[in-house]
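Late entry, evening session. Most of the bench is empty. Finally got around to the prediction I had been postponing all week. Sequence below, unchanged from the version circulated by S.P.
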Amino acid sequence: MTSPAIFETIKKTLSSHDVVLFMKGTAEFPACGFSNLVVQVLETLNVPFHDVNILEDQDLRQGIKDYTNWPTIPQLYIKGEFIGGADIVRELYQSGEFEDLLKSKNITHTPEAA
């Protein structure tokens, strides 16, 4: 069972940053392909984001899963709202809906020229 302190840490992180990615590894060195996929989408759109390496803290690793009732990592949040994991982010990006979501949340981003 996740401690209330872990939930408070998660809430504080989400309220301190517009875009947060709970991931395996770091943005510079993703430790799994799914985390890397989300990092690549964010970097392609030049979205500033805060990365949280869940491999450094087992309580946080389980806590983020309990927080959203979502069993997998990575987990992307925009303005405190859980967006989803790698598959959802990929689908949103490929359909163009991800940029619409960023605009609706007033997240500054500048897509790279094709």
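Two things to note before I forget:
The chain has a mean pLDDT of 94.
The two ends are 46 Å apart (CA to CA).
Will write this up properly tomorrow.
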